[in-house]
Automatic annotation (TrEMBL):
It catalyses: ATP + H2O = ADP + phosphate + H(+); Couples ATP hydrolysis with the unwinding of duplex DNA by translocating in the 3'-5' direction. Its EC number is 5.6.2.4. GO terms for molecular function: 3'-5' DNA helicase activity; ATP binding; ATP hydrolysis activity; DNA binding. It comes from the Bacteria. Residues 3-253 form the UvrD-like helicase ATP-binding domain. It comes from Shewanella livingstonensis. InterPro entries: DNA_helicase_UvrD-like_C, DNA_helicase_UvrD/REP, P-loop_NTPase, UvrD-like_ATP-bd. GO terms for biological process: recombinational repair. Pfam families: UvrD-helicase, UvrD_C. Signal peptide: none annotated. This is DNA 3'-5' helicase. ATP binds at A24, C25, P26, G27, S28, G29, K30, T31.
Length: 543
């Protein structure tokens, strides 16, 4: 079925029926392993049973679901989705009333930024980084969560802690989960937050088989409450979790694997290869000159047939500022996956608007994808679901001049709440910017893909240009007045991000620095080489 032979390590992880933690390097086929495990498991289940498959993004969950269903396999009552989606649709919406009683309103999920100011009173400033809830906070905020529920709101930032509480307190919930699911699979466990980790342990205690998959070296979201210590803590409990290591990288050329491994360990063993496909470029000039140089190089790569299409090339950058520097000077067709005004506002309404727009512009996006987003924020009866599908379908043939109003009306109707001015403005800005609109359209083979390193996680390209390898930028350095020592803000997380970037490349990886750089205020500074380009153990591993 898979078209290749599983390695002995992969087979061991697939065949064992124990609880386990699988640590897997990039491109090691961890998705293939999870898929095979799930397929074998669901084949033996009755129709009303299934497994829980949790992924980090909606895109990853679609891929997991599709791969599990390949060849017409019935995945029965399995759930595939993000952790928030699981908590809301399987735990919170059905069982929150067991904790807080019935609400007079239809309960919806809203982020802190969406709350009326009066409802924010008594909550920490959750829009600031560093104020994530953990399960110990539940007691302190229980009355507040109940008050919000009385007003028809489940706070997005509290989903994890409330979900854990529901599993602890509600026998009905526990019975439901046990009767429906046999196992829990969580991918990208290194990016788990504390409540997600606690939920994993609670469901294990309840009697589900638990499988966690991740890679400590790909932990890149510590700044928003994720922590690799949780996957580490599973590894240190061999009596509960078998530890399987899947570490053959099937994606990257051996010279790329060697370079990537050496950034963490200057003495690690190298794969045999004399063909070096990692390059360190120090170019003259600023990021604008880099963009012009890349234009020439990319045209040459195409002309020399080193790459078949532009979409197999990625340019990865550290931050959004670099995206705009490239945008002005890059002379090849491209698609920039930058911030977009709708995701910046990040409310239930803007998320629904985004998914409606994606449905309108990309024929691969299904009505069900929009419905899944709507179900994140509201629960629907079977008859209202039918209406919802029909309403979504109705926008597919609309003329572009009427799409804005159609999306606004539909969003109001589905979430039963008026779209406010900043949300309307965000939609208008997206619709009027052809570069942002491209983010919603199907892949175009004739466009180089440009994105931040964070957004590249889980993707792969034949050729990767990894930019922004400057001192001060990557790794980020703290400016401390009067101090001349190098003080790094988050060396480990930045190194992990560098690793994620390098390991996106299948064939060639080009690491780029330039002699000057614009800083965030547009002032030209000297562009010293990143400390990451000068790590011990790299000599001879790049050209
Ligand atoms: N044993 C194997 N032999 C050859 N190719 C394999 C093997 N296992 C997986 N692959 C291939 O390696 C590639 C990566 O597999 P997969 O997408 O499952 O990896 P992953 O570990 O989930 O990647 P990521 O780095 O995105 O997390 C796929 O093209 C897959 O077909």
């Amino acid at each position: 079925m898979v078209g290749f032979e599983f390695t002995p390590d992969q087979n061991a992880a697939i065949e064992s029926k124990s609880n386990m933690v699988i640590t897997a390097c990039p491109g090691s086929g961890k998705t293939s392993v999870i898929v095979e495990k799930i397929r074998r498991e669901v084949a033996g289940l009755q129709a009303y049973k299934g497994v829980i498959g949790i992924t980090f993004t909606i895109k990853a969950s679609k891929e997991l679901k599709q791969r599990c269903k390949q060849g017409g396999l019935d995945t029965k009552s399995s759930f595939f989705g993000t952790i928030d989606h699981f908590c809301l649709s399987e735990l919170i919406f059905p069982f929150i009333s067991r904790l807080y009683g019935k609400s007079d309103y239809t309960v919806e999920c809203k982020s802190y930024t969406e709350l009326d100011e009066s409802l924010k009173i008594g909550l920490p400033p959750l829009d600031d980084i560093g104020h994530e809830f953990n399960t110990d906070d539940y007691i302190t905020y229980e009355n507040k969560f109940k008050l919000l529920h009385d007003n028809g709101v489940v706070l997005l930032e509290s989903i994890g802690v409330i979900a854990v509480q529901i599993v602890t307190d509600s026998l009905a919930c526990r019975n439901y989960i046990l009767s429906k699911y046999t196992s829990l699979y969580i991918d990208e466990y290194q990016d788990s937050s504390q409540p997600q980790h606690e939920l994993f342990l609670s469901l294990l205690e309840l009697g589900l088989k638990a499988v966690a998959v991740g890679d400590v070296k790909q932990s890149i979201y510590a700044w928003r409450g994720s922590d690799p210590q949780y996957i580490q803590s599973l590894i240190t409990k061999p009596e509960i979790f078998e530890h399987h290591i899947v570490n053959v990288n099937h994606r990257c050329h051996p010279s790329i694997v060697n370079y990537a491994n050496r950034i963490f360990d200057s003495n690690c063993l190298l794969l045999p290869t004399s063909d070096i496909r990692v390059y360190q470029w120090v170019l003259n000039g600023t990021q604008h000159d880099v963009a012009e140089y890349l234009t020439e190089s990319i045209n040459k790569l195409l002309a020399d047939k080193i790459v078949q299409s532009l979409s197999n090339i990625a340019i990865l950058v550290r931050n959004n500022n670099s995206l705009s520097l490239l945008e002005t000077k890059l002379g090849v067709p491209n698609r920039i996956f930058g911030e977009n005004p709708l995701s910046q506002i990040n409310t239930s309404k803007t998320k629904l608007m985004s998914s409606l727009l994606a449905y309108y512009l990309d024929h691969k996006v299904l009505i069900n994808d929009v419905v899944e987003v709507a179900e994140h924020y509201s629960s629907f009866s079977p008859s209202s679901l039918k209406d919802l599908r029909a309403s979504v379908k109705s926008i597919s043939d609309l003329d572009s001049s009427t799409i804005k109003n159609a999306i606004l009306e539909l969003t109001n109707k589905i979430l039963d709440e008026k779209v406010i001015e900043i949300e309307v403005n965000a939609l208008e800005r997206v619709l009027s910017d052809k570069n942002i609109l491209k983010q919603y359209m199907p892949e175009n083979k004739n466009e180089v893909q440009i994105m931040t390193l964070h957004k590249s996680k889980g993707l792969e390209f034949d050729i990767v240009f990894h930019l922004d390898l400057y001192d001060w930028i990557m790794p980020k350095r703290e400016f401390i007045s009067g101090c001349y020592d190098e003080v790094f803000a988050s060396w480990e997380q930045d190194l992990n991000l560098h690793y994620v970037g390098i390991t996106r490349a299948k064939e060639h990886c080009i690491l780029v620095n330039s002699t000057n750089r614009f800083n965030h205020e547009g002032v030209i500074k000297q562009g010293k080489k990143s400390q990451f380009m000068m790590l011990d153990g790299l000599t001879g591993l790049y050209k």
